[in-house]
């Protein structure tokens, strides 16, 4: 997650925002998250939800948006369309929740809500593999988690990682390799349902 | 320069795949790598596997980051509430210099 301290998301074009999101730019992700949360929360609260549900549905939508941008399933010309896209995903997710069987038993509110087609489609197999890998990440030691996070999410170089963790560059390189091997090993040990 | 040696699951290969996934290969290296991928099924599956690992690490990290974003989103709302009362200071019926009136509040309570 790169640091871009002087960023104002409104001054950026849609394609610039998309590029920054693909690079996991911390400031962009944060501004995007903060600037859209209130609108989604308002929608969820207005439609039988509470604060906790608003947080859950918004975070799910945020991850889905991030996935779609990473997979080039979304392209944008202006910044407002990125915000609109995030809002639409959140809204669809909340509508899906309202339509779910469990909810139908306790309420009939969904009858009054306009139905939009869900936008998020990902293969089950890929999701399953990612799910197992996420489970493996949780089982890893904190040092390995940090190292992989710095390398893949924050896109730090081995020199920067070495400075942060307090080791030399070659050791950081070897440690990352060992951590990745460990991640593979833990993943193989988790039974695939 | 990408060598013609057989790709296996070793550190060197892993680092090369990382450079490909993180878009750090130059134009020539990228072309060579893509050519090798086309020919080598083993390399293709290694790239796919490593891409999924990278995505999982990113997912995991994003989920952690979102929790701190959320706290900040809630804090931001409180801050805006605190600066709110200054708006009631504005009274269009009274003839005073608004600029000098607000000057002491600038950066403290006045909405930005």
Account of the 3D structure:
The complex is a heterodimer of chains A (193) and B (112). Chain A is an all-alpha fold and 193 residues long. Chain A is 69% helix and 0% strand. Chain A has 9 helices and no strands. Chain A has helices at residues 14-22, 26-46, 51-70, 79-99, 101-106, 124-139, 142-153, 158-165, 169-189. Mean pLDDT of chain A is 84; it is low at 108-121. Chain B has helices at 11-21, 27-39, 41-83, 98-102. Chain B has 4 helices and no strands. Chain B is 64% helix and 0% strand. With 112 residues, chain B is an all-alpha fold. The chains are: A mainly alpha (193), B mainly alpha (112). Chain A binds chain B through residues 1, 24, 26, 29-30, 33-34, 37-38, 55, 59, 62-63, 66, 70, 126, 129-130, 133-134, 136-138, 145, 148-149, 151-155, 173-174, 177, 180, 183-184, and chain B through 11, 14-15, 18, 22, 52-66, 69-70, 72-73, 76-77.
